[in-house]
Predict the 3D structure of the following.
Amino acid sequence: MIDTHNNSFLSQINLIPWWKKIYKTVYKNINIIYSKDYDSYFDIGAYFDTGKFRKIVRELSKEHLFTFREMIHPTEVDDKSILSVHTEEYFEWIKMPLNLREVLASSQISELDTDAFQTFRYVAGGSCLGLKLAYTTKKATFNLSGGYHHALPDKGYGFCPINDIAIAVKNLKKNFGVKNVLIVDLDYHQGNGTKEIFFKDSSTFTLSIHANEWDSRAGVANMDIEIPTTINDDNYLMILMDSLHYIDHIFIPEVIVYVAGSDPFVKDELCDMSLTEEGLLRRDIMVYNFAKKRDIPILILPAGGYGRESWKIYYNFIKWVLFNG
Ligand SMILES: [Zn+2]
């Protein structure tokens, strides 16, 4: 069965008239944050495509939509910002190559790779800069890496050495006096680390809709929804819409961080959900429109997503906002 409604969003990014593309070479309504240091020389788990950030950059450039030079290149996050979230003891531990290797389930990091941790300093630097830019420029901002939501204050889990989401949120709150932040996490896996970090903080609301729950406790400003892996696009989107409407009545965010994991994708090589490419674009647009209608700045992070086609999901979203946002 062909669902014409579903086809409309992908066609919006696949059939763009030439004059619109030319206009976009001059005017950009989004920020893209990227550093070559995001592309690690070591593997992360067995399925993560470490070249996916580069692929997005290449594709945007090939289509003359956004060049590398037009992207904003972050510096490394400083120690103080990392220590606003993580304990000193853990920070010292995770910097050691063999400990990082364990958290990343990498087979390629050796004890000589003392610079391996740098990648995550740049990513967290990118999330801090991205959130600041989203807030100050009011443009939707995409960091091409980031969303390491499992990292706890004193422990790294599931490919997540440091929690760049929490680091960026604390950084923004400290430097810009922002109070209320909403984190919408739609990765396949629960944003348990982020929830734990803001567990007692009523000014940071964490919403996580996931098929894989790690921690069922409820924080003071938190909503966790576990969904079946067999859920289809329409039912998933209904749950998302209801959740956002519910939060809209009880919490007024000044900024939103959207953790747009692409691992609920049917072609994901690690996870087993069956959301379609179209469905995921509709999901992303729903969160984007929620922020836009309320004039709330938004930072978007790619988080999880495994296999050769994972990059496309985030790329589609960037392209859609570029032309329709
Ligand atoms: Zn995930």
